[in-house]
Design goal:
73% helix; mainly alpha
Length: 188
């Protein structure tokens, strides 16, 4: 994690009531941005969080700060999910983490469009995802259940490529992703 990313994650208030407001704002922003795009009215986000607009601005002085914080929270959750599945068998561990990654990709698409694609935050987050997922992939490869000729960059591009495409239903997206992931398995 970079210093910039750590600083943003450390913005979380220490007091319990302030922390609840912060968390409510992040959740409301995540839902609001997913539903209305990153141009969602900040007043609407504050209303959904059950706080006043001053509380929103106290925590996030700009729309960009709120967008970046939601993005960082999502990346942090995906990285923690990798640790949470580490005790599972290699193939189920990797698939469970990929499921969480797929959720992130849906949020990411909306947020990244509003962020500077060359920002150090995006680069640091990409590295965090690679660092979190690489041990799961390596473990599956070492167990002989995943092809050895792919790397974490290949895996993440496969998942984000498939899930970033337009599908009429999530069921079809999930079926196509399952077909693609089956192509990673070692055939015995």
């Amino acid at each position: 994690m970079t210093i910039e990313t750590e600083e943003l994650l450390l913005r979380r208030p220490a007091r319990a009531d302030a922390r609840r407001n912060y968390d409510a704002l992040i959740a409301a922003a995540r839902a609001g941005f997913a539903e209305l795009g990153t141009a969602a009215p900040l007043e609407e986000i504050a209303r959904r969080a059950g706080v006043g607009i001053a509380t929103l601005y106290r925590n996030f002085p700009t729309r960009e700060a709120l967008i970046e914080s939601v993005y960082l929270e999502e990346v942090d959750a995906v990285c923690k999910a990798a640790d949470a599945v580490a005790d599972l068998d290699p193939w189920p561990a990797m698939l469970t983490w990929i499921d969480r990654l797929v959720e992130y990709v849906g949020t990411k698409r909306v947020l990244v469009d509003a962020m500077n694609r060359n920002s150090s935050t995006l680069k640091a987050c990409r590295e965090q995802l690679y660092t979190a997922g690489a041990p799961l992939l390596r473990r599956a490869q070492d167990a002989g259940v995943v092809r050895k000729d792919i790397g974490i960059d290949d895996l993440l591009r496969l998942v984000t490529g498939v899930t970033g495409a337009s599908f009429p239903t999530t069921e079809q997206r999930d079926r196509v992703l399952a077909i693609a992931l089956d192509g990673l398995r070692v055939v015995i």
